[in-house]
Amino acid sequence: MDRKKLILLSPQEYEHSLDRQALNALEGTPGLEKLARKYNKHAVERFFRLMYTGSYLKVNEKNFPEIYEILEEACSILYLQNIPDLYIQWDYSVNGFTTGSENPLIVITSGAVDLLDHKELLYLIGHEVGHIKSGHMLYHEMAIVFPILGDAIATATLGIGGLVFAGLELSLLYWYRMSEFTADRAGLLACQNEDAVVTALMKMSGVPRNFYEKIDKDIFLQQAREFKGFDYNTLDKIGKSIIIMDKTHPWTVMRASEIIKWIDSGKYQEILQRHSEENGDELFIFCLQCGEKLNGHEMFCGVCGSKVGRR
Questions:
Q1: Cβ(74)–Cβ(176) under 8 Å?
Q2: CA–CA gap between residue 126 and residue 193 (Å, rounded)
Q3: Which of 37, 40, 120, 145 could join 116 via S-S bond, C-beta 3.0 to 4.6 A?
Q4: Which pLDDT band holds residue 234 (cuts at 50, 70, 90)?
Q5: Domains in the chain, ordered, with CATH?
Q6: For residue 189, which phi and psi values (nearest 5 degrees)?
Q7: Pairwise CA distance, residues 121 & 111, whole Å
Q8: pTM tops 0.85, yes or no
């Protein structure tokens, strides 16, 4: 299968609405971004990079070249010009994550390398590239660090400061989960194979390796559609929120449900068609901050006022 390179792709085109709503709420918190950048600049990102580069195996053209080619392909398809560092962590779950807002790096597990086929691994790495393309990393890191900061501040302020941090922590974790829906869409755009996304999510859900040849995607898809139906019941919505409120990732069945809805809406195919190389002359340029369509000659976006970058 020949995958299309999505030239001039903007993350706003596939951003999930719940991601945007949660991010808007976070960005409206006074001083949060300033605090996040302060801690990230001086300690957080440096710590994570030191830990990962000191412990895990780096992937490059000579070391695991087949995996590096998948990373290059994901970046090329999703129009991410700077290829991030990639490391392999010993862990036999099927997983990956990204860290570093200034200089991002991706980590995938050895289980993902062994248990996913080429298209599924392209989805997983494309998912992580999507986080980078959307600029998720600053608040992702703070969602991990805030519990530690909150405990320290609670101790220093006899518990009063901890109450404030607890609210921010839950807001960060909620947005973190919603950002996964956006990254899943990026992963699908990277692999351009709906079945690969479904089977990768099934393997993440815990399908035993001995049953990989017997995976029934239709049953899983039916389960995902039934899960979507629960949202119409207020009690079920509250129950879901309470169960996963302290988690960074939504349930894999919930993720499958959301990606199915996006495919069924036709938006996925619209992006593939709009950004195919043969339609390059007809592409629109979008503001990278708000997604507004631009003419191409503006210095600043007429909607949000952001300075327009030149490609």
A1: no
A2: 12
A3: 120
A4: very low
A5: 11-275 (3.30.2010.10), 280-311 (no CATH)
A6: -65, -30
A7: 11
A8: no
